[in-house]
């Protein structure tokens, strides 16, 4: 049998397996249903199942060179976000010829209990990583507005909006016809974009002094510090005000104006 024909046959077999597994998990309402699948193009056989909430399982047939039952085992792993480098649940194996409901039982009984806690941690880290990426995107826009020509390496073909490092040319290396920047350098953002490491080259000495002055402990970006406020200011005492006025409404004839006391 031709290699491509064999791969197509294996793919079709695992396409059927994936559809059947997804149908079982949806029928059981595992995590509310919504399971989908995708068969892989692997000469030995592979299929993955996915849930909208981020859960997933990969079923692959390894060790086909082994004889007997060992060569018929499917290795089943939990699927994690691509950025996750932490702990993962141990894989389980099942015989590829077992009935689909039995394979689903093995996943629920032997894989899920360890997989779900590690997946929750992975998804939480993914959420944090996405927040940090958005913060870097916003800070890079501000940096680009502040320094003409600042960009990632390879820009504009590969601008990398969420990058951590940016470069610019200035001083004697300023590109011809571009706005003058006093020095070249690069800036490296922390993962959450709250701090940065700066490297400046050929900075005029007077400019360097001004930059260093910005780092002095008493420097403030706006305004002048006159006196530090106490950590626990004293409560402001209540003040009574007496305002002379007239009471609007019905009053006894000839009554004198009354006092209205405000506190």
What quaternary form is this? single chain
Q: Which term fits the overall shape? A: elongated
Approximate strand percentage: 15-25%
Spatial order of strands in the largest sheet: 1-2-3-4-5
Number of contiguous helices: 3
**What separation lies between the terminal Cα atoms?**
97 Å
**What is the arithmetic mean of pLDDT?**
85
H-E string: HEEEEEHEEEHEE
- SS-derived structural category: alpha+beta
Helix content: 25-40%
- Specify the biggest β-sheet: 5 strands, antiparallel
Describe the structure in your own words.
- The protein has 263 residues and is of the alpha+beta class.
- 31% of the residues lie in helices and 19% in strands.
- It has helices spanning 3-28, 100-146, 205-213, and strands at 36-39, 46-50, 56-61, 73-78, 92-95, 165-168, 184-189, 196-201, 241-244, 259-262.
- It has a 5-stranded antiparallel β-sheet with strand order 1-2-3-4-5. It has a 3-stranded antiparallel β-sheet with strand order 6-7-8, with no helix packed on it. A two-stranded antiparallel ribbon has the order 9-10.
- Helix 1 (3-28) crosses helix 2 (100-146).
- The radius of gyration is 34 Å and the shape is elongated.
